Amino acid sequence: QLLDAVKLGTAREVQDLVSRGANVNQLIGSLSQNLVFFAASRRLTPIGGRISLLKVLVQQFGLAAAAVDRGLRHTPLFYAARE
C-alpha cells in the first residue's frame, strides 16, 4: 500500500500511511531499492508533486537520496533524469 502511494499518490497519503505504521524503510525488489527510487521515477504531473514527495521521504523520514541499488548500481537521480 505504501509503495502504491509513492508511485501514484500524494505526499500527504504517504505521511498518513507511515503515521499508521507503514514501513518507510522497506527495500523493494531484487535491486533492494528504497522508496526514493520510486518517487524519483514518477512522471511529472500537475498534482501529486514528485518534489514534495521526495522532500517528505528524504527530509522527514530520513531516507537516503544517494542510495545505490544492489544490481545496477544506479541512484535515484538516474531514474529522475530519465523523465
Automatic annotation (TrEMBL):
Lineage of origin: Eukaryota, Sar, Alveolata, Dinophyceae, Suessiales
Cited SUPFAM superfamilies: Ankyrin repeat (SSF48403)
Alphabetized InterPro entries for the sequence: Ankyrin_rpt-contain_sf (IPR036770)
Protein name: Uncharacterized protein
Organism: Polarella glacialis
